[in-house]
Prior knowledge:
- Residues 1-23 form the signal peptide.
- Helix content is 49%, strand content 18%.
- By secondary structure, it is α/β, with parallel strands linked by helices.
- Strands 1, 2, 3, 4, 7, 8, 9 and 10 form an 8-stranded mixed β-sheet that branches.
- Helix 2 (39-55) runs antiparallel to helix 10 (250-284), helix 4 (113-120) packs across helix 12 and helix 6 (174-182) runs antiparallel to helix 11.
- It is globular, with a radius of gyration of 22 Å.
Amino acid sequence: MKRLILKTLVAAAAVAAFGAAQAQDKTIKFATQNPKGHPIVMGLEKFAEIVQTKSGGKIKVNLFPGGTLGGDQANVSALQGGSLEMVSLNSGILASQVKEFAVYDLPFMFANSKEADAVVDGSFGKKLHDKLQDKGMVGLAYYELGFRNITNSKRPITKVEDIEGLKLRVIPNPINVDWVKALGANPTPLPFPEVYAALEQKAIDGQENPITVINANKFHEVQKHMVLSNHQYNPQSVIISKKFWDGLNAEQKKIISEAAIESAKYQREQARSQVASALDNMKKAGLQVTELPSAEQGKLRDKLRPVVAKYAVNAGQDTVKELQDELAKVRK
């Protein structure tokens, strides 16, 4: 009898312990390079709000904007090691983990945000994110950084030749180094948190980023000129550590997945609505903005064609064709 009671008590204790483990609070550290007030951080804030509501406070999300936990590559390593739970970063940076992600960095691939949405929200975007699992990460959704433009402190850019000789900061990956070289400029790969100081100290002449990034990080304080080149579109992957993900129960995974997708929709809306006001703010602060005439824009595309061809091979011709087929559907 005593033995039966003991077994019952042990079983009850095991059930209680299991229940406690299932209900145990989870904490997510979520990092990004952009500062508070930027649309990417607004996406993080919306994610945290949705998770808080849906989990009844059982899942806590702590945000780390402004590169406070290091650059993108450091964040990826931390994610794989399990010391960081989530990050939002330019999808093309993930090409160092899965080569197919290089397709997102091909210059002039997307003409507008409608095309980008169709690709990243469809089967193509999901297929690429699924490839991250073998690298210790799980792709949840895509935020938007936007179309990139070139700034510098030397001279206005009204023709392609004006870019020659400029020392430009680029995202530290090969395709960005090569397209800057193709324009006759000097690429300087730098982690994002180091860019403002490098511009201020004249270690570099310029950089290239979307309008909202340039504004939020106050690069216009240390730059005189910007050309609306729109040479590259950046989706941002919202990814979570597989080590952390595998330790979640089904309900927790559902909450986090839904929050990522819902916050992505909100984030893109914010990103697009802020472009005009960000540009206006920088112009008022003294930034001189130019646009390339259509003939010069054509020359820019022509100069970058060899780079596109080279990295289409690196990303995989099948992957590039699949993306182009998706774009063709949208353009019809």
